[in-house]
């Protein structure tokens, strides 16, 4: 049986999939998240992109302002995670 967390998380993902364009996505995430949360998530995606491009930690830290701890966590997700970053990065590169 799914926990409340799992149920609510699935509902969130379903809601995100209902968005039709960048403007709707921006409005939804601006309502849902704080500026800090959005900044942190976008920074992590940028870090993942730069890691997948082969940049080293010090260059990524300088370019993004991310801590080496954040870079390490993102790298761990890229290497051992569920492939979410890789899927998004590949699709963004294809466009």
Question: Could you walk me through the main structural features you see in this protein, from its secondary elements to its overall organization?
Answer:
- The protein is mostly helical and 95 residues long.
- Helices cover 79% and strands 0% of the residues.
- It has six helices and no strands.
- The protein has helices at residues 4-17, 22-32, 35-52, 57-64, 68-80, 84-94.
- Helix 3 (35-52) runs antiparallel to helix 4 (57-64) and helix 3 (35-52) packs across helix 5 (68-80).
Biggest sheet features: none
* SS field, number of helical segments: 6
Q: Give the strand content.
A: under 5%
Gyration radius, to the nearest Å?
A: 15 Å
Number of strands: 0
Structural class by helix and strand composition:
mainly alpha
Point out poorly predicted stretches.
Answer: none
Overall geometric form: globular
| Separation of the first and last Cα atoms | 39 Å
**Secondary-structure element string:** HHHHHH
What average pLDDT do the residues reach? Answer: 96
Helix content: over 70%
């Amino acid at each position: 049986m799914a926990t409340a967390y799992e149920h609510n998380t699935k509902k969130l993902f379903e809601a995100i999939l209902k968005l039709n364009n960048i403007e709707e996505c921006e409005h939804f995430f601006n309502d849902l998240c704080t500026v800090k949360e959005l900044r942190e998530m976008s920074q992590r995606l940028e870090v993942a992109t730069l890691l997948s491009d082969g940049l080293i930690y010090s260059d990524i830290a300088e370019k993004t302002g991310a801590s080496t701890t954040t870079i390490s966590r993102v790298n761990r997700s890229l290497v051992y995670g569920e492939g979410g970053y890789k899927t998004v990065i590949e699709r963004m590169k294809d466009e």
